[in-house]
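Sample intake sheet
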Amino acid sequence: MLHITKKVIFLPFEKKMTEHNLKYRFRGTMRQLIVLVFITGIAMNLNSQTLELGGFIGTSYYLGELNPGLPYNQTQLAYGALARYNLNERWAIKMSYYKGKVKGSDETGGWVEGRDLNFKSVINDISLVAEFNFWKYFTGSKKNYFTPFLFGGVSFFTFEPQSFGGTALQPIGTEGQNIGFAGRSPYDQYSFAFPFGFGFKYSLSERLGITFEWGMRKTFTDYIDDISTTYYLQGSGIDPSDPGQILSDPTMNHDAYMQRGDSKTNDWYNYTGVTITYKFDLRSNKRCNNVSWK
C-alpha cells in the first residue's frame, strides 16, 4: 500500500524554495561585493587629488555561438558616461555606464552548419574598475602627460536578445524553457561580468584628458545570443506559422537533443573606444601648492 506523507507532498516545494533562496543569496552576495568595492574606493579617495567626468564613444561586439572567435565581427555603436577618481599618479577608480548593441548570425560568424540562427541585443553595462598607470600620469601635467594603463573590476549588465526581425527571443523559450524541457527554465536577462583591458591616457590641456580603451567582459551567462544547449522540437513537426517554433529551428531539419549551442562556454562582449574627461580638483588651494605631480 502506498503511503503518502507530508514530506513527500512538500518535498518538491522545499527543493524549489531552496533553489530560490540560493539564487537570491548569490545576488545579495554580489550586491554586497559591489558596495564593498565602491566604499573601499571612496575611503581610499579621501586623500585623492582629482575627479574626472566625461563621456565615451566607440564600438561593441560579442563572442559566443554566433561568433566564436572573430574580433569586431558585426561591430555596433556604443556610448556612455564615466567618473574617474585619481587616487594618485599611478592608481584610479572608475565607475562607468556604457550602452552598446551586439549582434551575430550563422551567415557571418556561426560555426554550426545548417543552423541559420541570428540575434541582436542592446547591452547596458555598469562597471566599477581599478586602473593602474604604467607611468606617472596627471591630467594637466606638462611632464607626466601620457601613459599606457591596465584595468580590471566587476560589471553588472542587462541584455534582451531579439531576432533580426525584432521578435524577443527569451519569452518564447527557443530551447524549451517555457515547457520545462529537460528541466530547463527561462533564463535571466541580466548577469555579472569581469571587465578587463588596457588603454592609453593623454592630457590635452590643464583640464581635459583623452583616453583610448579596449575592454573585454567575461560574463556568467551563455544566453546573450539566446543559444546555449540543444534543440527541443522535431524539425519535421514544426509549425512554420508559429514564430516560437520556427525561431527555435529556422531550417526545420533538426531533432530534439541535437546540438544547438555549447553550454560549456559563456558569452563575452567588448567595448572599444575613446573617452573625453574634464578634471575637477578635490584639494584646497593650499594643498595644491604642495603637490609635486606637475
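Comment: The chain has two domains: 7-47, 50-283. The CA atoms of residues 59 and 262 lie 26 Å apart.
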